[in-house]
Structure formats: structure tokens, C-alpha cells
Specification:
Elements (H helix, E strand, L loop, with lengths): L2 H10 L3 H5 L3 H4 L3 H7 L7 E5 L5 H8 L3 E6 L2 H10 L5 E4 L12 E7 L8 H10 L1 E12 L5 H12 L21 H10 L3 E14 L1 H9 L3 H7 L3 H15 L10 E13 L1
Parallel strand pairs: 1-2, 1-4, 2-3, 4-5
Antiparallel strand pairs: 5-7, 6-7
Helix pairs in contact: 4-5, 8-12
Amino acid sequence: MTAFDHAERRIWSGKAEAYAHTYARLCAHPAEGLLDAAEAGPGSRVLDVGCGSGTVSATAVTRGATVYAADAEPGMAEATRLAVPGIAAAHIARLPELPYAEDTFDAAVGNFVLNHVGRPREALTELRRITRPGGRVAITIWRSPGAPGQTLIGRAAQAACLTRPDWLPALAPEDDFPRTPEGLTALLGSAGLLDPECSEVTWEHRCDPDTWWAGAERGIGAIGQVLNSGGAEGLAAARQAYDGLSAEFRTPEGLLALPHAALLAAGRA
């Protein structure tokens, strides 16, 4: 594993419950479009890699697909197994080394998983390997620069002078790519996927301000590590900044209406 992969395992260890109660609903939004792009339907054999708390797997099961799930975090794989009674299996496995033979699946989907692997191109090559010729590989990633809702907590951390911890590496330059439609399309092509295409998906995520804060406060994702890098004092300063900055997104009901943008890409194996 790369240094990035090791950091991701550290970040997500034991976070299944925290994720399920905070950011899982946010990440569920592109599920239907992701499965449409993968052409996942009745009778198809589908792998949901980076399954999280099981939203995409559950949606694929309702479409009549035979669904296998995989996640590097044991708690996530277990959460999906429990949440999706109709699932064929939920395995502990990480990209780019999956325990499946070549051409096993009609479709492979990864909802935001590519953000969390140290070698994205190799990860896509692995998804192509386990997908039959002519089958579909479909993924989502967060767009960069992020939409205003995505950057809210980061802006609060910056206002509190919190910075990225030294132990938290970025992708190696040779493994990185532009988080744009053009950049992601090119990445799929370089991994050997045919006729790659990419579109932008936008939506407004509504949630309680405390729930949105709680995910990062509990250490979800890289932003969670930044937020907690300054101890209790830094966390309190960031919360104060967050309460002020979040006013621009508050609805009359007291919820946050947070604009988000992601990229959805697919190609044929």
C-alpha cells in the first residue's frame, strides 16, 4: 500500500457507525444515476466496491441485480451485510487487489471510493479486470474545486488556523489527476476502459447543522483530521467559525441547504 492508503485505513478504522449517521445520506444521492451508468438491472451481477453503509448495494438489489459488496473497512462491510438482506456477499477487500476472478461481474460500481485509494488508475484497471468484456464500470468522485456546501467545514477550519496534519499525505503527483470531467474521462481511458464518458451531478443536501458538523468532529475523512488537529481549543474555534459561516446556508426551518457537485463517469470493460 502507498502512504496515502495507510493513512486512509487509519482515518476510516472504526468509523462505520459515525459515517452511517452523518454523511451516508449525502453520498447516497448519486446512487440511481451510478447504477444507470453501469446498466445494472434485473439479472445482472454487480460489484459495489467501497460499499460504505450499503446504500448503493440496497438500490441495486431492488433493481433485481445479484449484488456483491466490498469495503476495506471491516465495519463498513458488516454494516452493508446487515443493511441489505438480499445481498449475495459482503467482503473485506480493498482496491486495487480484489478477491475476484477476471470477468466475474456484468458491472462494477464505486461510489466515491476513488477518492480514497492511493493509485486511482490501478484501481480502475482492477475494476476493468473483474468486469466481463462489454460490461460497465461506473464511479463517482467529488469535483474539485468543491461546491460551496462541500467547503463549509474546511472554511471554518481555515478560519481557526487549523492545517492538514503532517501524517496525512496527499496523493503522489504521479498518481494524481484533475478532478474535472476531462481529467476523470482521461483517467478511465488510461485504465483501458472503452468509450469513457463523464458528467457533473449537482444537488442540494439538506441536514441539521449539528449533524453536518458531527461527521467531521468524529473524524470522518481528511477534513475530520484537519478539524481535530488543534485539540479541544482548535475544535471550539472552528465550531464558532462554522456557526457564523453556516448562516448563509440556513433555511427558515433551521436546516442547512448545502450545494454539492460530483463527477459521474463510466466506460466499458
